Amino acid sequence: DLTHGRILYLEDVHVSFDGFRAINGLSIDIAPGELRCIIGPNGAGKTTMMDIITGKTRPQRGTVFFGGTIDLLRHGEAEIAQLGIGRKFQRPTVFEALSVHENLELALQGSRALRASLWGRLSGAQRDRLAEVLTLIRLQDRMTRSAGLLSHGQKQWLEIGMLLVQDPKLLLLDEPVAGMTDQETERTAELILTLKGRHSIVVVEHDMGFVDRIAEKVTVLAEGAVLAEGTLAQVQADERVIEVYLGR
Ligand code: ADP
């Protein structure tokens, strides 16, 4: 069975928008614990691929399996999140009026947390996980601060933390270092490398320095399908990859 042993398995997936083939025979598989970077020019289908995995977009054709046996095409968006797929969009969407800690509690508990007064209602295991995540995202000394007062980079880490408290099996990160300073970018690389192994991670990113820092294996998308796969050095040396980036 081809899907066996893969955390994520897409085969011959097709998505058209009003006849335009945004995803055109996409096949990709990710091993458990793998950290994969997806690159490709604008319009290659990277966002649509993430939308397919999270159930936001339904392919007209193809196979999408998670965890070896779960057919994602049989599940809706909310169910897919429950199955252990966490997605971070490019722009941070933290609750600015709430503290760092409250944002993480909310992510742990859902909207019920708004009514209960928070810290006391968490289980011991939840409290441990929250403390662990605060350390991972390096916001432990800012946990009572309003999220709105954080820097752009800190907001992005908080949002990653909001996914991590739910301990997702698969983490999807859309341009996690967009708009970050060099130092924030380096800290984000360290964070992602720390997460590797415990979580399978798919990162869509344009910053090649960052990709080089974190990725073992890179997948290049173009025109809705895989153009090349390998180390960053391998794909960057590929004539076809050079061509799509130069737009010839
Ligand atoms: P990327 O993220 O790699 O830049 P996208 O997945 O956003 O690429 O888009 C792939 C192609 O599909 C683009 O040409 C885009 O214009 C088109 N597309 C994406 N979403 C829609 C939509 N909802 N309706 C029509 N066209 C879309």
From TrEMBL:
One GO MF annotation is: ATP binding
**What's one Pfam family here?**
ABC_tran
ABC transporter domain location is 8-248
What keywords does the record list, in alphabetical order? ATP-binding, Cell membrane, Membrane, Nucleotide-binding, Transport
Q: List the InterPro entries.
A: AAA+_ATPase (IPR003593), ABC_AA/LPS_Transport (IPR051120), ABC_transporter-like_ATP-bd (IPR003439), ABC_transptr_urea_ATP-bd_UrtD (IPR017781), BCA_ABC_TP_C (IPR032823), P-loop_NTPase (IPR027417)
A single GO CC term for this protein reads:
plasma membrane
PROSITE patterns cross-referenced by the UniProt entry: ABC_TRANSPORTER_2
Q: Does the keyword Transport apply?
A: yes
The protein's name in its UniProt record: Urea ABC transporter ATP-binding protein UrtD
Q: Which gene encodes it?
A: urtD
